[in-house]
Amino acid sequence: MKIRTLLIVPLALMASAATCPAGELVERIVARVNDRLITQSEFDRRVTAAQNAPNAPSDRTQLRKDTLEDMIRERLIDERAKELGPTVSASDAEVDEAVERVKRQYNLATDQEFDAALGSSNMTRDDLKRQMRETITLQKVIGRDVTGKMDVSDDMLRSEYERQKEKIYRVPPQARVYEIVIRFTASDPAARERAVARMEEVRGRLASGGKFEDLAKEYSEGNAKNRGGDLGMVSQGELLPALDAAVFSSETPSEFPAPVLLPASIHLFRVTDRKTAGYKPFAEVSEDLKKRIGENLYDKRFSEFIQHLRREAFIKIYDPVLAKAEEKKG
């Protein structure tokens, strides 16, 4: 699970914030991470927030397991932040900017609206700022110990390009295509014959030196009529199968393929500027490669980072169902 799914969106928690029952004096403990406790009320609030999130697991047990895992990771990263000290601390300016982003995100134009939204969930600005400070600090730890150690070399990019180009970066044959379309009623054989005869008239004028673009403006009933039938650059696979076969026939490529008769129309093409199939050049896709490699590498490095923190920590889960799930995972 990536850190971006682990970190809390503060106002999502606002929707589920609640105080403990007044009569409850002893708080149940769900888990312990070193000297840090995860209480039942805190855990329940996080589960409530998580179940309202997009793509939340429908299975309640899985939701609780995922939520506890997130909270354990947060405790581990927070402990690491304390080890690193001021280098990863969130400044007041960073916290203030983060709060302003939250206000913009939720269209809270005035301080009064903002305070009302917080108050309706039993939160104050100080509560939100504390959460944002924790979140920024966690992000800085990840930036230092995970993202900052990801090195994507040019050799790695080129190797990934060769590995993925057939699947991702293949470019199909292309051509500049001009079209003349004559339509008819599918259920009217006489209308079909008239359309075919009219298209033969077009072909005769082409053979006599007529310009395809001029004839398209005169005869065509297609959307590109006013552009002289110009469909622009077309890739193989973009047209209807019968039309595609005529334009990109590998056996008899021609500037003027034979007309194609469909159930309710007849089509004549002019095909120029043919380009064979190939691949997008490395320089054009290098940024996309960096993103793809970076995401996969991030997942790997983050998982390794968390596993290292886990090995160095004391973790005890007191909830029997969650403890059993942890044992199975181990």
Kindly describe this structure.
The chain is of the alpha+beta class. It folds into two domains: 3-150 and 289-329, Porin chaperone SurA, peptide-binding domain (Triger factor/SurA peptide-binding fold); 170-278, Chitinase A, domain 3. Helices cover 54% and strands 14% of the residues. It has helices at residues 3-6, 10-14, 40-51, 60-84, 92-105, 111-119, 125-145, 154-168, 189-207, 212-219, 241-247, 282-311, 320-329, and strands at residues 29-33, 36-39, 170-171, 174-183, 230-235, 260-262, 265-275, 278-279, 315-317. A hairpin with a 2-residue loop joins β1 and β2. The protein is elongated, with a radius of gyration of 32 Å. The two termini are 16 Å apart.
Keywords:
three-stranded antiparallel β-sheet; alpha+beta; Triger factor/SurA peptide-binding fold; Chitinase A, domain 3; 330 residues; single chain; disordered N terminus
Shape: elongated
Q: Which structural class fits the helix and strand makeup?
A: alpha+beta
Given this structure, which CATH class of the largest domain is correct? Mainly Alpha
Largest sheet: 4 strands, antiparallel
How many beta strands in the DSSP annotation? 9
Cα distance spanning the termini: 16 Å
Q: Record the strand order, biggest sheet.
A: 5-4-7-6
Strand content: 5-15%
Number of domains: 2
Unreliable stretches = 1-23
- CATH T-level fold name of the largest domain: Triger factor/SurA peptide-binding fold
Instruction: Give the radius of gyration.
Output: 32 Å
CATH superfamily label of the largest domain: Porin chaperone SurA, peptide-binding domain
